Amino acid sequence: MQFVFILVLIICIIVSLFAIQNGYPVDIDLFFVQFHQVSQSIVILLSAAFGAIVALLFGIGRTLKGKKDIRKMKKDLKGIETEMTSLKNAIESKDNEIEKLSVQTDTVEKDKLSILDTKNELLEENRILIKEKMDLEAKLEKSNSSELISCENEISENCENDMLSNSAVFYTEKSEDENSESLNQ
Question: Does residue 79 register a pLDDT over 70?
Fold first, then answer.
């Protein structure tokens, strides 16, 4: 800003020196108006002043436009900051959800491992019970077959004994019957 001010001041000094050195009277014809015998230095100074005023007006217009743009940008910035705040809040809530889901996932994983351990234990117990059942069935089969054989032996002995005793009774009865027949005769 100071550089611009110093540059403008230098230009004004140069224009002033130029106007002072050229102070001769001149005729001016400005569209429909005519001026006779006006000092050339006044014409130079007025032209420089008019140029400065036009530059000032363009500068003011540019400054006002810049201020308007700044106000618009500040308004946009507030909207963006509000949106950014809401997005940060959304991110925080999503991070909290992720944290909760992570904890739940860990819990589910632990439960899953516990269930798998329990399943393996039950499968092992089931395998042991099946083996014991098969052993018991084998023992039962062996004992049934040996009992069956001993029962068959016992039955056949009992049958033989019964047959012998029945034969003996039969012979005894037959002899008694013969004896009684012979007596009857």
Answer: yes
Residue 4 Cα to chain centre, angstroms: 58
Report pTM.
0.40
One-letter amino acid for residue 55 of the chain: A
Is it the case that residue 78 has pLDDT exceeding 70? Answer: yes
Residue 149 exposure: Cα atoms within 13 Å on the Cβ side:
5
Separation CA 159–CA 172 (nearest Å): 19
**Could you read off the pLDDT of 20-53 as tens digits, one per residue?**
787 788 888 878 888 888 888 888 888 888 888 9
pLDDT score recorded for residue 180: 56
Beta-bridged to residue 72, according to DSSP, are none
**b/e code 53-77 from CB counts within 10 Å (16+ = b):** eeeeeeeeeeeeeeeeeeeeeeeee
Exposure class string for 113-137: b at 16+ Cβ within 10 A, else e = eeeeeeeeeeeeeeeeeeeeeeeee
**Strand residues in the chain grouped as ranges (E):** 25-30, 33-39
Q: Which pairs count as long-range contacts for 33-39, CB under 8 Å and 24+ apart, including other chains?
A: none
Q: What percent of the chain has pLDDT over 70?
A: 76
Task: Give the residues across from 28 on adjacent strands.
Answer: 35
Q: Which residues contact 22 (CB under 8 A, 6 or more apart)?
A: 40, 41, 44
